[in-house]
Amino acid sequence: MTHDHAEDFHLSDAALRQRSLGSIGLIGSKAKWARFRKNLRDSGHSEQEISRIQCPIGIPEVAGKQPAVIAVSVAAQLMQLLGGSRREERTGQHCGIADNSGSNPPSNEPSLIMHPAPR
């Protein structure tokens, strides 16, 4: 996105109107996202449409505000998304990451969950 919140909002609004986009992400704080959600609702978007935007973007395991950290976090998330869609093409299954924090025995490693792709 940009360094201008107003421009970010207009880009987010335009992205939601493009049904063909596979992923929409936004860099921002909780306060920025709360404002955007309200303004997107006021612009006529439903909660379901707004939920297509992921804010903040990136994976939670790589957290920080420095540009390089954000870039690595977003790149890791894109690799997960691309890996999942390629796996889906090969196997007919969608792959996602699950939190194993409640597993027995406990594990700090993420695990993969596979389920049939929606048709």
Written description of the protein model:
The chain is built from four helices and four strands. It is α+β, with helices and mostly antiparallel strands and 119 residues long. The protein has a domain at 1-57: NAD(P)-binding Rossmann-like Domain (Rossmann fold). The longest helix has 25 residues, at 67-91. The two termini are 32 Å apart.
Q: Could you list some keywords that capture this structure?
A:
45% helix, 13% strand, 119 residues, globular, Rossmann fold, alpha+beta, disordered C terminus, 4 helices, single chain
Beta-strand fraction estimate? 5-15%
Secondary-structure arrangement, i.e. CATH architecture of the domain at 1-57: 3-Layer(aba) Sandwich
Order of helices and strands: HEHHEHEE
If helices are DSSP runs of H or I spanning 4 or more residues, what is the number of helices?
4
Share of residues in helices: 40-55%
Q: What class do helices, strands and sheet pairing give? A: alpha+beta
How would a textbook summarize the main sheet? Answer: 2 strands, parallel
Q: Mind telling me the CATH class of the domain at 1-57?
A: Alpha Beta
Return residue spans where pLDDT drops below 50 for at least 5 consecutive residues.
93-119
For the termini, the CA-CA separation is 32 Å
Strand order of the largest sheet: 1-2
CATH superfamily of the domain at 1-57: NAD(P)-binding Rossmann-like Domain
Mean pLDDT: 76
Number of extended strands: 4
CATH topology category name of the domain at 1-57: Rossmann fold
Question: Globular, elongated, flat, extended or rod-shaped: what is the shape?
Answer: globular
Multimeric state = single chain
Gyration radius, rounded: 16 Å
